[in-house]
Amino acid sequence: MPTAEFMCLDGEIVRYQDARIHAFAGVVKYGCGVFEGIRGYWSERERELFVFRLPEHLERMRFGMRLMRYAEIYPANYLADCVLRMLRANELRENVHIRVIAYLGGDDELAQTGPVGLIAGALPRGSPKGVTTGIHVRVGSWARLADNALPPRVKCTGNYVNNRAAEIEARQDGYDGVIMLTATGKVSEGSGACLFLARNGSLHTPDLASDILESITRDTLIEIAPATIGSAVTQRTIDRSELYAADEVFWCGSGQEIMPILSVDRIPIGDGRIGPLTRALQERYFAIVRGADAERRAWLTPVWTDR
Ligand code: PMP
Question: What is the pTM of this model?
Fold first, then answer.
């Protein structure tokens, strides 16, 4: 994977190959890491790299650290400083995917709460192909983690063993991705994205009690939908069979952006092509993240100006 040359490890800028932690660290033994995937978009017009909704990502990370009972919860400005220093060290002037992990270090037993460390890195990365082509997914046979076992609203590394199982099953069966259902069989989310469907001109998405991550892209779409497609998003419980009845389905996430889903379980969605509401939201979203939407500049953190 082509990664940027420098990372930030525990506040220090180090070369990629030197970003090492101990083999017995709590993150390795117990899956105790809280992570974020964030995108930065390069604007050629402004010669600026904009990080999309950085404070919101870092606040979610701090919430995760609290729920994981970390002995140290990093202040938001320390987290932001590590990310921005890492980006500047790499002189990145292209679209990037930023990865941040607040990890449990040490070599102690199960109930250890520290020491805590921080890793930030980035890789140059454009939009995934599926954003323009659309994808074909299946409903996974593994149930989504339940909130009373391992809360999916905490973006903790250990949780992703669940997502990985579902993703591998789908990939090995020839699909591009997976939609997970809750333990009670309701629609939850993708392995790394939140789900939306359109029926009769309005948008619906599983509510926050459907064992989903509280996605920042989902929140973005809920915010911009009324002015973009002329109707608000309904957050509610969604049955599996409603997926097949939908006119449009897509999922969204920082990494996946807005990705049209053309079939579920080989059943075409609508006419099997990217629908008008999905396209309208994609257009607005990409204008916003690239800094071309004056109304939503507050969502962007510039890397090079205002230093
Ligand atoms: N659900 C899951 C399980 C995810 O891993 C992600 C990616 N972080 C999302 C949804 C989308 O979240 P966000 O929009 O905040 O990137």
Answer: 0.97
CA distance 86 to 106: 24
pLDDT in the model for residue 2? 66
Could you give the C-alpha distances from 244 to 98, 247, 264, 280, in angstroms and in order?
Answer: 34, 8, 7, 22
Catalytic residue selected from 29, 129, 155, 186: 155
Rounded Cα distance between 159 and 176, Å, is: 21
Amino acid of residue 52: F
Place of tokens 């002037």: 93
* Mutation choice for ligand 1 from 34, 60, 61, 155, CB with most ligand atoms inside 8 A: 155
What's the half-sphere exposure (Cβ side, CA atoms, 13 Å) at 287? 13
For the question of residue 29 being annotated catalytic, the response is no
User: What are the per-10-residue average pLDDT scores of the chain (307 residues)?
Assistant: 88 97 96 98 96 98 98 98 97 95 96 97 97 98 97 98 98 98 98 98 98 98 97 97 98 98 98 98 98 96 84
Can you give the pLDDT at residue 3? 80
Task: Decide if 252 contacts 135 (C-beta within 8 A).
Answer: no
Cα distances from 225 to residues 135, 220, 229, 274, 298, in angstroms, run 22, 8, 6, 17, 17
Distance 130 CA to ligand 1 centre (A): 16
The single-letter code of the amino acid at 45 is: R
Pocket test for ligand 1, best of 57, 205, 215 (most atoms within 8 A of CB): 215
At 82, give phi and psi (nearest 5°): -65, -45
Strand, coil or helix: what is 162? Answer: helix
Domains by residue range for the chain, with CATH:
6-124 (3.30.470.10), 130-289 (3.20.10.10)
**Which pLDDT does position 229 carry in this prediction?**
97
Helix or strand or coil: residue 219?
A: helix
Question: Residue 38 forms beta bridges with which residues?
Answer: 98
